[in-house]
Amino acid sequence: MAVIETEELTKSYGRHRGIEDISLEVRAGEVFGFLGPNGAGKTTAIRTLLDFLHPTSGSARIFGVDSRKGGASVRRRIGNLPGDFGFGKEATGHQAVTLLARLRGVSELGRAEELARRFRADLDRPLGQLSRGNRQKVGLILAFFHQPDLLILDEPTGGLDPLMQEEFLSLVAEERERGRAVFISSHELDEVERVCDRVGIIREGKLIAVERVSDLIGKPQRRVSVEFAAPVNREELKRLPGVDGVEGNGSRVTFLVTGDLNPILKVLAGHSVADLEIVHPSLEEVFLTYYREEAG
Amino acid sequence: MTALLGVQLRDRRRSLLAWGLPIGLMSAFIVAIFPSVADALSKVVNSYPAGLKQAFGISELSDVEQYLDAEMLSLIVPLAAGYLAVRSVASGLSGAAESGRLDVVLSAPVSRSSIVAASFAASGVELAGVLAMSLALTMVASALAGAGLSFGAALAGFANVWPLALLFAGLGVVVTGFSLRTSVVTGSVAGVLVAMYVLDLIGRLDPSLGALRYGSVFRYYGEAIENGIDPLAFIGIAAAAIALAVLGAWLFDRRDLSG
């Protein structure tokens, strides 16, 4: 059974765009990345999933229950980190954890303490006195401490230093091993590439692709960097089928190739090549390609 | 619900000092100076036009209860308590939305209506605490100055403010059903509070406009320090406050949590 299932989920604000016809599925034991730049609709989608926003049309089901009707029984099994985590300025992290534990009926706070040690979080200072990164650590503890079956994390590494980002990615991997579903919204492609099994790419409120990360990166697309012995006419390369994004100056040229590499190699053979590098593109490049294609 | 109420009360603990102390000290000052100004006051009040005395509910200021009523309980305390009530309920709802706490709490198995109930109940407790502190300081001043203020009368006077102020907390919950901006909630309800007071005042000053008073809760407020609490008005206003809070909870449950 899908942990999250949306069907043509739409949220509009009058004339303003929110999200449109989002249909996706997240399964148990899966880390799903929700990718898009700021303003693409990631947070709106999450808030609609959690019933903070009521959908204009379509439906969202969590653990098979309509999110509008699920209420307490569903939210007991969810850990949520809001995009802009806050809990007021005066409360300490410890007070926040204690309140959430009471609301969730959790009496054992050992996991919260373990997470605090792991993230080196200060739970004794008022949140208003903490930096954004240190507040985010408290938010992560609140999302994870009750060991939920589903984690919904909106821009989870915002403000975290690289060490803590690593710790976060390890934690997510552990949760996946335990069979939990994790839904991560992010525009940090590197972290998505490292931890997610599948990604959904959202652009201007619409889901434009859902693919396995390995499939995305392994698409028959290559980044080619060529160092010629002498300057060449780049127009010759631009005319070749499947070639895109030709850049460079003088004798160094880089471009993306989709599909067969042979026509490229034949053209290159007509020149004196000093160096040649052909690599799979990063997720970021694939992501940007999607955006360019859709915009085109 | 009890966990939410506990947090809401903890957030409001400072208001006892911030609101109870100044209102109480002001009230204490009024009571403390009464013995030394009583004679002069009677002469001044006798010279007031009859309409003015009627408008402000002043028959004469021959005892400390009447003086406390005229100086504090007919204007300053109800307006201050009404504003405190809406500010309090707004901090628990729109303030929580602005700080991000609402999102975190609603991620737990908690209903929106229980958050509204906790916020409204905390406002009621906060109001009661502020009024009790004001009463206590006033009674201490009376004892020290030998003003002879009756505890029963003063208790009735301060207690009578509670449902009136709570009504504006209920109205605040209703406005939260439309806006989650604290400035909008407190500003609009404070405007209604002042408008209702003015409406009642106009109705008192000009008997031909007396019907206007039915649009104001101050019409039912009375002068409990002198005449005792009107149980029907007390219960009626409290019931109206709760009804508004229930309506507000219904609206809050149906709204999007943004903006």
Indicate the proportion of strand residues of chain B: under 5%
What is the total tally of β strands of chain B? 0
Number of domains of chain B: 1
Biggest pleated sheet of chain B: none
The CATH architecture name of the largest domain in chain A reads 3-Layer(aba) Sandwich
Average the pLDDT over all residues of chain A and give the rounded result: 88
Beta-strand content of chain A: 25-35%
Task: Count the DSSP helices of chain B.
Answer: 13
CATH topology of the largest domain in chain A: Rossmann fold
- Put simply, the count of helices of chain A is 11
Shape of chain B: globular
Quaternary state, please? heterodimer
Greatest chain-chain interface?
A-B, 33 and 21 residues
What pattern of helices and strands is seen along the backbone of chain B?
HHHHHHHHHHHHH
* CATH homologous superfamily grouping of the largest domain in chain A: P-loop containing nucleotide triphosphate hydrolases
Radius of gyration of chain B: 19 Å
Short overview:
The complex is a heterodimer of chains A (296) and B (259). By secondary structure, chain A is α/β, with parallel strands linked by helices.
